[in-house]
Amino acid sequence: MYKLNYYILTMLLLLLLAGCKKEAALQPGNQDENYLVVKDNPSDPVDHAIYQFYQATELPVFYNDTIARLPVGNSAGVARYTYIRLATAYSPSGTDTKLFFKRLTKKEKVLAMLPFLKDKVLPRINGALPIHSILLVDSIRLRGTSGSGTTTTVNKPYVGFNTIIIKAVRADTMSVLSQKSNAASVLAMLMLKKLHVEYSTRLNADFHSISVNSVPGMSVYVQPLSALSPDESLTLEDFGFIKRNPTNLSAVWTPYQQDDLIAYLEALFFYDTTAQFEAVYTAYPLVLQKFKVVKGLAKEIGFRFAD
Questions:
Q1: What is the pTM of this model?
Q2: Angstrom distance (rounded) from CA 143 to CA 19
Q3: What is the pLDDT of residues 67-105, one digit of tens each?
Q4: DSSP3 helix / strand / coil % (the chain, rounded to 5)
């Protein structure tokens, strides 16, 4: 019994001494690495142009949603990796959506987009909204449910969790109006996310209510125009609905609430001044009221306008 206790005490003492040895200094890991930081690749013209854009704007642009590959070991001599991808799946409206996008088949398409983003999009934001990154793609398709049916949006910008997905276009060959339209779509979707997250109550009370109250006691969204105006004497603009640029508003149905809002947001960034917008819709007081609401919200968020 004495020998057993002796051996136990001896083992405890050895363990205690081992625990008192100086531990090796902790080495930093890569858990906190920011994968949105762009690194230069001077041997590749596209990658180098992206790096120069990043230096000038601090905004990373990607042509692939996989932005890093990290080794995690090997199996039977075959290296294994984990992949870091942009968080694209996000719905600012809170509805169930299915997002499909096609990666760029030719990354050289990026080169025409960088000046467009730098000159036509970023100056309008001017710090009003944060952009974490931009993913350029060949095409975008979004399906979602709204109201009583299913909607499909094609090649419109989509705001994800840490990136905004934009269809790459030959901006250098586009007309001035087409460039304005494309820039307006990007800005509208960025502002849409902000509004849905922080201003949903005010949107219903100050914006959507204008059209809702135009036909008391009746649902005004996603309705045939004939139900709102049986004698066909009124147009959709009479109820406060405008065309979504450049997608035409159906002449016989009212839009979904979200499409109604996006149409005004795109118009907000397409027209240079309120006077230009009013010149187009001067005969429609409800349209002018709704435009005033969205412009007021945009200014409150931090966007700047000529008037």
A1: 0.80
A2: 60
A3: 888 887 887 778 888 888 998 876 555 554 688 999 999
A4: 45, 20, 40
